[in-house]
Amino acid sequence: MGRTPRIGASRFLTITAALLGAALASTRTARAGDYHDGATLDCGECHVMHTYGNQQSHGNALVRKTAEVGPLLKKDINELCLVCHDGSSKAADVLGRNQGKFPGDVRQAGYLNRLGGEGQPATGHTLGSTEIAPGSQPPWSADQENGGGVGLTCVNCHAPHGSQGTERAYRNLRSDAGHNAPGRGLVTSNESGSGNDLACDVYVRHPLRYDESEVDFNEPDKSDSGMARFCAGCHDNFHGAVGGARIGGHLGANGRYSGFLRHPAAGVDLSAAAGPTSLKLFNSHANKVKVMSALGQWSKAGPDATPTCISCHKAHGNGNAFGLIFRSGRGALTEDGDSQGTSVEALCGQCHDESSPFARD
């Protein structure tokens, strides 16, 4: 029997990398807005080839084996993500004050806080937190999913290797976060170039920027919201169908809604919420919160404008309780709202005035 030819280590790694790259390219098309995806999925940025024992110095990386670390990761998950996403010139900053690649951006998702670090818990998503997610039913916490008492990590919401298959997930958001079954929480996105695809949940004009002016939200399903389904994975009780047990609400003979138990995140247009005055009030503001549009019309917003979760909350959080966006409609835009927005009333005033029927329910 002939001897099996041996391949040198360097040649083996070259072949392996080429095959891996071909496999990734065959299943996913690289998109600039989803960096860890296809041709931009660089294994060496996060992984090393070997580790021995509990830890080993590998170049500038300390390879650790803890409950939070997966196979051959250079650091614990949050530490690893923050190498590029906290004060680095490589990528957008997601923690605390914006000191990253685009420090002038008003970040669409706002900013995270961290146990023992920047920010205060209850102002948004807290890295390291093992608390039960507000509104989760059944109760969900990060350590239930992560095991070993490991609190909230970036990969509880984001897929570190990018979108799966042809999902085109916005910002690598997982479609199965929290209680969501695989695919249920998918938030699809498309980038500018050939125009906005209204069948996608998100329209990204500049894929490498996180500024809120570069992002808008479509409404492919007038009765539902991709973003709301994603959020419902961990915050179930705050989401549901209009008229259902969680949201309540009913459409009166005058064509206006009333009787809500919780704020709807889909299915109610501003023009039908409190009558045309609600849409008129919204359009009167120079600084507007983000709403969905089935027609792709945001400035000025049309009668199909619909609020959803990110209309009132920054997804990562900000300096306000629950990441609420105190946006008065005047002054300089900030991630907390704007320079003249100092309370939740400023946010509510985006769409509602004192004559709103919601104030009397």
Overview of the structural elements:
With 361 residues, the protein is an alpha/beta fold. It has helices at 9-27, 77-85, 142-146, 226-232, 270-273, 276-283, 309-312, 344-348; strands spanning 55-58, 61-64, 113-114, 126-127, 189-191, 202-204, 215-218, 248-251, 257-260, 292-293, 333-334, 337-338. A hairpin with a 2-residue loop joins β11 and β12. It is globular. The termini are far apart. Mean pLDDT is 83; it is low at 1-33 and 53-69.
Could you list some keywords that capture this structure?
361 residues, alpha/beta, four-stranded mixed β-sheet, two-stranded antiparallel sheet, 17% helix, globular, disordered N terminus
Q: Topology, pairings included?
A:
Layout: H1 9-27, E1 55-58, E2 61-64, H2 77-85, E3 113-114, E4 126-127, H3 142-146, E5 189-191, E6 202-204, E7 215-218, H4 226-232, E8 248-251, E9 257-260, H5 270-273, H6 276-283, E10 292-293, H7 309-312, E11 333-334, E12 337-338, H8 344-348
Parallel strand pairs: 3-4, 5-6, 7-10
Antiparallel strand pairs: 1-2, 6-7, 8-9, 11-12
For the termini, the CA-CA separation is: 86 Å
Order of strands, widest sheet: 5-6-7-10
> Roughly what fraction of the amino acids lie in strands?
5-15%
| Main sheet summary | 4 strands, mixed
Helix percentage: 10-25%
- H/E order of the elements? HEEHEEHEEEHEEHHEHEEH
Count of DSSP helices? 8
Uncertain parts: 1-33, 53-69
Whole-number mean pLDDT = 83
How many strand elements? 12
Oligomer: single chain
Concise account of the structure shown:
It is built from eight helices and twelve strands.
